[in-house]
Each structure stands twice: as structure tokens, then as C-alpha cells.
Amino acid sequence: MKPYLAVLFDSFLESMKSKVLWVLLAAWTLILLALFPLSMSKGETYVFTNGNFKSAKIILDQLAAASNGKGTRKHKAIYAKLDEDFQGILKQRQTNQRRISIGKMIESFNKLLKEKDLYDAAVWPTAVKRPELKELIENPNRSDLELEKLNRGLIDLAFEGSISSSSGQATWITYAGLRLGNGLPISQSQLRTIIETVIFPLVMRLGLGIGAMLVAIIITSPMIPDMFQTGSMHLLLSKPISRSLLFLTKFVGGCTFVALNIVYLLVGLFLYAGLRLEIWNAGILWCIPLFIFTFMIFYSVSALSGLIWKNPIISVVVTAMFWATCFTVGLIHFFFNDFVNSQGQTQRVFSINDKPILSTQQGRIQFWNEEDRAWKTAFGEVDGQKVLGPIWLPKEKSMYFARPPRLPFGISIGQDTRLELAHLPDFADASDTSFQSKPWDDGRLDSGPELPSDPQQLFAWKDTFGVLTAEGIYRFDAEASVKAEQQKSMLGGFGFGLPKNLIPAYPAMTKKFEYKKPLDIGVAPSFARVVLYSNGKVIDLKATEDGLEESGQLSLDIPSETVAILGANDKTAVVCPIGMAPFVIDLEAMKIQGRIETIGDDTINQVRVDTNGKFVLLATNGKVWTVDATGQSCEKPSIAGQGSAFAIHFNESNQLWVAHARGKVDLVDLSTGSSITSIRPRAFTSQLIFDYLVNPFYQVNPKPSAMNDTIEYVLKNSKNKTIAIDRGDLDLPKIASDPWTPIWTNLLFIGFMLGISCWYLYRQDL
Amino acid sequence: MGLPAYAIEVESLSKTYKEGLIFAKLHKALANVSLTVKRGEVFGLLGPNGAGKTTLIKILLGILHPNVGTARVLEMEAGSKSARRRIGYLPENLVFPRHHTGRSALYFYGRLSEMSNAQIAAKEKELFDLVSLTGREHEPVRRYSKGMRQRLGLAQAMLHDPDLLIFDEPTDGLDPMGRSQIRDVLYQLKQRGKTVFLNSHILQEVELICDRVAVMALGKLRGIGTIDELIQGHPDADKATVTMDVVGSLAQVEAATAGCEIRSRTTIQDSKDSSDAIQRIEVDATSQSNVDQVVDRLRNASISIYRMERFRPSLEQVFMSIVGAANASHQP
User: Fold this and answer.
1) Does the beta-carbon distance from B114 to A240 stay under 8 Å?
2) Each residue's pLDDT tens digit, A358-370
3) Residue A587 pLDDT level (bands cut at 50, 70, 90)
4) Distance from CA of B292 to the nearest CA of A (A)
């Protein structure tokens, strides 16, 4: 053992005496020192940001009308206080419909926030009725921030419905105590979540995973060729040591060099994140062995090349080629997988008269075509948009849905969302299969009225449907919607937008919400009650003749930003916060009845309730769980698609539709676990190529980039396994792969490469 | 049980290299080489570049694998760990890792030879003294001259007190002072009874130190034996003469040596005064009695012998002759 320890110690000595090591350590120190002043601070701001405008077009139309002396007093008062430049632009818009950049509008509105005499009691008579504004109006010695808050409240009042009101909560990024730019409209804890789940993995993936790894490969590339250069190698080999062990020891020595750097940098980052951002994430420290392991994958290739060609440049080139090959194979696999397994992004499954319908993450609605044995996209493709609904109204033989543009983390683009109506008369007769071969294109799709602002979900409600928004729950009134559209087309010619409540196509079922996002809704199958989840609380809303009325609240004692989804029957609700065991709520007593620990911290993204009140929960890892109506027992039924399910839905007979991989859909009887109907799309040539060529090649190909998944996994603690700051984020596709698999597969690869190197060295005449 | 008689036994050793990847050519580096080296012997391996000397050494150390034949070192399989434990090796063109000082390099190679720090420390001073590096041991090896590096190489080879020392071109590229220092070390090893296997193409050095010599050319062993034995095998070995410069007239010299085997008589310096004239005679030295008789007669005739020199083929001539013959036989 002594000789090998000597080689190891010698590698360490070589590292310590290397200028490169000290240069790198100095570079890491500079980076950490530069990073150290970067922090965050909590504050209050009412400035406008891009996401605040729900309908910029309506606001601009109203202001342009005000420039011409039309519109409300509030609009005219605001127009009068706008800067001259913007006033000119608005006047031009009135005459030639000139387009105006939203940036210009934000800039002018933010100037308006500093206007000292915007408030006029005659113009804003209702402002004093609002407690948050009353206090500010009555205070003559308002601070700048209070003035900003008052003016923001007045502007929000003037454009109610078109502007999201501001909570004032904001977090600033600071550098050496100085605030950078505008505050972000999120809490510090939300920003920390984003940093932990998005920024850290990105920094690790790009900065360390690619940048530092490349540096490490270049720096360590001469180590093996240097050892095996003629003058020193023969002397080493004349000593009583094994060639293979000598090589392996030198390999470990190379890793030691890199380990020194990684430990220094990551411990520095860990301390920075903890001390400056208050993120004490042990995952950063877990990344140390993972990065060393990732380096070992590349170094095993570099070392073998060094043995064969004894040239560091060739080693680097071969390693880069290996990297490129792995990347290319991974990319081909990714695109093929996406193309072939696009059904994997199924978001919802529905059924109409026992015909399944899928909606996908890309905003497509698909029908099963038995003739082709394939899923056919209907109603056009609106790529990249999620689907709200669809809801089937049997009386109208119509299907309603909406496709609001939406980005991850609850960021909506701020455009209006129009309801879409699909008339499907053929569905009335289940035996008529003619619809299955018809081209379902835009021609069969009608455009319905705009949905209320910030729609979150559509849900079936008696003989129509309801809309959950950030501001309240509304009911769709089909007759009123037709009238509203007619009236709008009559008045629209006057050149200004109409308030949405002129003829309400969506009568409110609740008062304006005091409940904050994240929101979710559970509707009892009997429609006797609706249960809301809002900001860490459960709110029970009982159905009355006029709508819904709050009958009780319960705090779950979880962080208020926690995203959760729920389902409810007449007596019980199951609330599933992200990454936590679900709560069972007794709605009559309004208390927590217990937790469903069997499910553990799996993230649930769909909850369905059958007419008997039985719950079915679907987790992001594809597992399906059943919970009885009282929430007492929980089971994982043995059904088709168990462990790989993407979507679930009860039909009228309380049988469960389960959509799973590659468009496979089963209608299962939960009492027996058997499949009543099984839909299996036929395999296309591309699928066969994927199954028999691309995928096998990908499986045997080393996958160093898969280590990123493991690194990402350790960086997110159990509460943040799924990135979500809004309920809609749960609809995003999830990677359900085991984060530890890359360790085993890559370990096999490293072992294989080192084995070949040792065999080569043993056989080779040197 | 006594010590093994042979330190090295090589039998019918052949080694062929493949050169090139696609259109591989075969190059025969060793062809049927057999030799033995006795214990306590200083053995010289001579040969021009490309003769196969380094290949043979690498096989003895296990760095190369022979295609055919066997090689044993100290009665163990050549290249085995146990054999390598008892060998000290100084390679050709030795390069030390740049991060070492002389001392740390000695410790590193000592540890590779399974020595403890205490064992190395006990021998460190003696060795640095022996190779004249005392006072320079803490300097980085990258600042060492070639001679210093070679001497450090000798020190590491001797560190673990091996039974067999294999030196590959130990004086190559050194100045006369450096060569002399290395030679001194070799003499000391010889006096200590160590077996030394010396690969060199500096013939004078080999002639001065080695007990036995082997000459290789074109991968084959062309001659082996003591230096005298090799000379005896030289074609000019029977042309031995003793050249004498004597003071006297040509007539006096002819008279004195009449009846002896004289190959030539030449006047080098002529003078009327016979005491100033110098004659050169070449005496047949095939038989020593003829030489003795000529000397006796000249002295009896009161002729002074001014200079006397015996001629025989040098090791260089023997080497050139062997290598030349090998090359000639290899010509198509």
C-alpha cells in the first residue's frame, strides 16, 4: 500500500505546488468576494410592472377617449395629469389607432404615482369608502410611499378590472446595500424558492457543470500523459508496483486536484447563500461529491486518451468529442422522445358519453380516432398554451374551454382570455361515430365572451359551469353572454372598451375575493358546497340560491405561499399541499381530521371525486391513490397505468379514466381494478425507430448530463421538489425519473473506462 | 543454500514491434538473444543505436513483454514484483517530476521501493555524499544540471540497496567531470560486490569498468566475453607487434638483432653521430620470447631503448569490426 500512498501524496504535492491551483483558488475567491455584497431586501412598492396590466388595450382606449373629452371623470382626471409626451401619443391614437408600447405606458403611470394632487374628492367619491385609501386621503402629511400607495389605489379604481391591484409587497435585489432596479412583486421567501429551485440549478448546470468542468478537464489533461512520458514512466514501472494501481492512483490524484477547487468554491457558495440570502441549503454541499463524480466521468475518458496518445491536447479534444457525442445523442433522444411521446404531456382526460378526450400541455384538445387508432387534434393547435376546461354542457351539446397564454410560476402574459365554444351535436348519439373521422378544425369553433380577469379554473356547476378567478367565482350565463356580445358589437364602434360588467355574461357567485393566491377549488358532486384553498387556509362556501356564501375558515398552519390543490365531497375535503402529506378536513366541524401519511410527500396534481364522494388522487410521479369518502383509508389500487398516469377523470358511472404513457387510456373499475376499455394507439414508424434504435443507443450511451437532474434534486429540499408558486404550475410536465439512476449508470461507465485503461496498460509495451 | 550464480539469465529472447496503425510494419528489436550475467560482475552491454539494448533492459524490468524466450533476474521471472524489488534502475534520459526537490524525489522513489521514511532518512546523507549532491538536495530538480539529475538518478537506484543495478546510458550527454563522477560511483559499487548491468555506447568507459562485455547489433548478440576474449576473436589479433625506437645507427641495430623476427627497420632520425640517430623497429610479438630476445640483444649491444609500445586491437576496433560485419551481413 505504501507505494500507492506515495503516488497519491505525490499527486497532492504536485497540486499544491501547481501555480494553476493557486490561480484558480484566487479566481474563485474573487468571484465569491464579488458575489458577497449581492443580497435581497424586503420593502414596499406600488410602481407598475408589466404583469399588472390585464388589458392594456382597454386602458389605452379609455385614455385616448379621455383625450377627446369623452369617458369618465376619473379617466379625464388621469389623462390631465399624464406627462405631455404621453398625452400627445394618446391623442394620436384617438385619430389613427397608433400602437403604443406598454413600456411607455408604465413609465408615464409610474410618474403619475408621484403626482401630489391627483386625488380629487369630486372625481373619486368612492375612494374614501375604502379603508386602505381613507386613511391616506385624510392624512395631509403623506410620505412619498404613502402618496404612491394612494395614487396607485386611485388609478386601480379608475381602471378596475383592467389593472391588477398591488399588495405593495416587494423584494429588492441589493448590491452592497444599494437597491437594484424595481422591486419584484413577490415575498422574500418566494424569491428564495425561485433562487433555490431555478437560479441555483442554473448556476450549477451552466457555471459549474459546463464552465468549471471544462477548465478542470483542460487543467488535468497533462497529468496522465506527464506520468507516462518516457523519462519518468520507465523508472516508475521499474518499481515494485502494479501498473493498474499506479494508473488508478494517479487518476484519484487528478480528481483530488479538482476536488480541492470544488470544495473551496461550493463551501464558499454555501456560506454566501446562507449568510447573505438566508438560504442554508445543504444541497449545495451535496453537490461537492456529485460534481467530483461528474468530473470523474469526463476524466476517465481523458485519462484513457492520455494513456493511448500520451498527449494532453489530444486528451482534451477526445474528451470534448465525447461530451459532444453524449450531448448530441441526448438531444436526438430528447427531440425524438418529445415527438414520439408527446402524449406524455397529457394534462387532462375527460369523457363525453364515454368517449375520452385529452387536453395537452401545449393547449391541444384531442379525440380518439378508432379508424386510425390515433389521437387527433381538434380545434386547431394553439401551441404553448394550457387549456382551461373543457366543460361539456349536454343540454347545449357544446363544449367550452379557454386557452389563456401562460408561463411558468404563475406569470400570465396579461392578455384577455376568450372562451371558446365547440359545438358537438354528434356527441348526442354515442353510436354515431361520424364525428371521429371529421376534420376538427377552427371552422367548428366559435369564439365566446371574454372570461373574467385572471381565470384560474373552469369547473362544472349544475347545468352550466363556473369560473374561479383571482377575484371571485363566476357562473357562466349563456343567454346573457349572447346579449353582451350583441351589445358590444353595437357600442364597440365608439372606439372605447366596455366594462366587462355592462351585461354580465358571468354573474358573480361570490363577493369580491379577499382571498389571495395561490388558490384552488373543490366542488362537492352534489353542488351543496364549494371548498376553496387560499394562502394556507381552507374556506368553506355553502351554496345558496344567489351563489356561494362563506360558512367557515380553517388555517392549515403551513407557510401561506404553499401551493395546494383540493377535492371535496359533502362532508370532507382532501387538501394536498405541494410536497406534504395531504390533509383530511372535516367540513362540518371545520377542523383537521388527520393527514394521509401513506402518500408521504409525493406532490399531488389532480384530485377527482366520484358521485359517492370517493376521492382519487394523482401524484406527479404517476401514482394513483384512492381515499374513501371519509378520508379514513388510503390505498394504491392495482390498475392499468399505475405509476405512469398523467391524468384521471371519473365518468358518470363512477368509473375512472386513466391516461398514461403514449396516449394509452384505460377506463378502469376501481372496485375490481380491471380495465373496461383500453385505448392503445398504434405505433408509428417514428415510435419504432425510437424504441428500437434511438432509445437503446441512448440507454447504453453514457449520460453525464443526467447528473444535472441529480444535482437539481439535491438542491431542492423536500418542500420544493416541484417548482410551483401558483396552482397552474402543477400542470407543467414533470420529470418523474429517479434522480439516483444517473449515479449507477455513470458509475458503470467510469468502471468500464477505468477497466479498459488498466487492461490497455497491462497489455501495452511502454 | 548459496547465492544464485547468475544475476541475469536470458534465453532465446525475441521481441518484435509493430509500427504504424493501418499499414503496420514489423520491426524485430531482439532476435534469439541468450546471455548470462554472473553475480558480482560489472557487465557492459555495447551496441550502436537501435541495436536492441534498451529493449533487452525493458524486458528485464518487465516494462516490455517478450514474444519468445525467457528472462530471469536473480532467479526470478523478469518483471515480477519480487524481482523488481531487488533491482535499482537508472533509465536513459531520466526526467524527474518538476515539483520535486532532490530530497523529495529521493523520498518519493524510496517509498515506491517500499521503504519507510526512517529507512530513507538513514541512507539519505550517505547517498547525497556519494553522488556529490550534499548541499543541493533542497533545490528543485528543475534547476539541476543534467549531471546532477543523473547523479540523483544513481542515488535513487542505490537507495534500497538492490542486488542488481541496471544503468541505461548513465554518462550519456555528460561532461568529462560528470562522467568521472559517475565512473567513481560505479567503481565503488564494483568494490562492494554489486552486480551492475551497464548499457553504454561509450566504449572507453566500458573498457575501464566492465568485467565482461556483450556486443549487440541489429537485435542480435554478436559477441560476449571478457575484453581480452573479444580481442582474441578480432581478425588482427595475430598481427601483434612491439614497436621500439632505439638510439644507434641502422648498422648497429641490424647487427644486434640479426636472427630475430623483425618485421621492419626504419630510420626516424639520421645523424653522423650514431648516438644521435634513432631507428624504429617493429618486432613480431606473436611470441613473447622473440620480444625478450630482441630486448636482451639490444641491451647487450649497449643500444638504448628510447620508446617501446605494444600494439593490439582496441575494444573500439573490436566493436567496429563486429558491428561492421553485422551490417555487412544484413545488406541485401
Assistant:
1) yes
2) 888 777 788 888 8
3) very high
4) 54
A671: Cβ contacts below 8 Å, ≥ 6 apart: none
Q: Which residues of A touch B94 (CB under 8 A)?
A: 231-232, 235
Q: Any bridge partners for residue A626, and if so which? A: A616, A635
Cβ atoms of A574 and A622 closer than 8 Å: no
* Torsions phi, psi for A18 (to 5 deg): -80, 135
pTM: 0.70
Residue B57: what pLDDT?
92
- The DSSP line for B107-156 is HHHHHHTT--HHHHHHHHHHHHHHTT-TTTTTSBGGGS-HHHHHHHHHHH
Ramachandran region of residue A295, left (φ > 0), alpha (ψ -120 to 50) or beta?
alpha
> How far away is chain B from the Cα of A732, in angstroms, using its nearest Cα?
53
Interface contact flag, B82 A240, Cβ < 8 Å: yes
Residue from B30, B82, B95 whose CB has the most chain A CBs within 10 Å, to mutate: B95
* Cell digits of residue A505: 355574461
Q: Which of B31, B159, B30, B12 is nearest to B85 (CA)?
A: B159
CA distance linking residue A640 with residue A672, whole number of Å: 12
Is residue A520 within 8 Å of A564, Cβ to Cβ?
yes
- Tell me which residue in B94, B96, B114 faces A3 most closely, judged by beta carbons: B114
Q: Do B112 and A18 touch (CB under 8 A)?
A: no
Torsion angles phi and psi, residue A94, rounded to 5: -60, -35
Predicted confidence (pLDDT) per residue in A334-346, tens digit: 888 877 766 557 8
Taking the CA atoms of residue B25, residue B29, residue B33 and residue B37 in that order, the dihedral angle to the nearest 10 degrees is -160
Residue A427, pLDDT > 60, answer no
Q: Is residue B94 within 8 Å of residue B150, measured between CB atoms?
A: yes
Residue whose entry in the numeric block shows the C-alpha cell 369580491 = A512
Q: Are strands A519-523 and A529-534 parallel, antiparallel or unpaired?
A: antiparallel
Cell 459532444 sits at which residue?
Answer: A324
Q: Residue A652 and residue A139: Cα distance in Å, rounded?
A: 60
pLDDT in tens, A379-414: 766 666 677 878 888 777 777 887 766 555 555 544
